[in-house]
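hey so i finally got around to running the thing on that chain from the lab meeting. sorry it took forever, my laptop kept dying and i had to restart like 3 times. anyway pasting the input first so we r on the same page abt which one it is
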Amino acid sequence: MNEDSPAPDSAPSGPGSLTLTALFLKFLVFGMLAFGGPVAQIAMIREALVDKEAWIGKARFNRLLAVLQVLPGPEAHELCVHLGMVARGRIGGLLAGLGFMLPGLVLMLLAGWFYVSFVVGDAHLSGALLGVQVVVLGIIARAVVRIGQHIIETALLGAIAIASLVMTLAQVPFWIPLALGGIAYGVSRRPAVAAALLLIVTAGAIVAIHVWAEPLHALHATTGTPATPLALFLAGLKGGLLTFGGAYTAIPYVRADTVGRGWISDPTFLDGIALAGVLPAPLVIFATFTGFVAGGLGGALAITAGMFLPAFAFSLVLFERLEAIVENPALRHVLEGIAAAVVGIIAATFLQLGYATGLRIPAPAFGVMLAIAALIAAWRMKGAWVTPAIIGAGAIAGWALF
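ok and heres what got predicted. didnt touch it at all, straight out
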């Protein structure tokens, strides 16, 4: 039968009479094996539930994956929620999503506790941690390129990403480049209008941010505010709503609301990303670590709830209309423009993190070489073992060099 045949989609044989307990346990096992990032996680789910158990047809799976890549949120987690709903409705989607995220959440809570209790302030580990932070920059650089390759498909999208990069480095509030990107690509059928809009708004925003620097700084200054569970929940929610094109795109928003408020440092933030890269979990679980360091167990659970809420909500609320909504041409162009702006924001955040890390490296030349080596390894090597191996090598190199 042709894979485009409607039969597998309309009558999937896999879920059958699967109980809610069995459904939860199935996705809990997926969560325990979710090493290697979203590509490996999605491949595992596809092999088990599409190729072997035929929960949905291959053509529908491909369409669904394309939709989830446009929407914000970690694709692998949203895929689990969606497939849980295919099996047992909305309660099934909720249980599938919880099962998939639970192992990583528990492990990250333990990692955060261990880090705060035993790692912070240990002078013997400072060099190793610095090495880890340097190689994480290489991993992030590769992610920026990979995300850009999927999203930047036209010259206008490239211009949106560059404008967003410039505005972010000029400390323009994040919502301006996002709105600009969505509007500019939304009118992409009139390229002259879109180009003029990009130039005028970018220049105007940069001028305004410097002319009104002091009042804007006073308006947005948050350093010294307490890391309450509500504040951490909202920080996670912002990251979850703006995670377009992959989990790495949550980095700038979580960093702005944690590092930017003085709750944690850039080195600690990079340590959290490194830990997330070696655990079986969606990469956005790094938010749990930042929440734990900033606000203890309550803060960790609050920021995690905010980060994952959109991933649950889009599938649970829009299940029946998900594909139709995103296939709307006007909305799709707006979302693609926003995604391009996010690429620029994460690229700017990479530069900011690189600069902050470079200031702490006692041997800058070795630091640059280590970051480049990590970038090359992340670029050329494939497999779930690559990120843990790079992080382990970075720790050894950092201990020896720094």
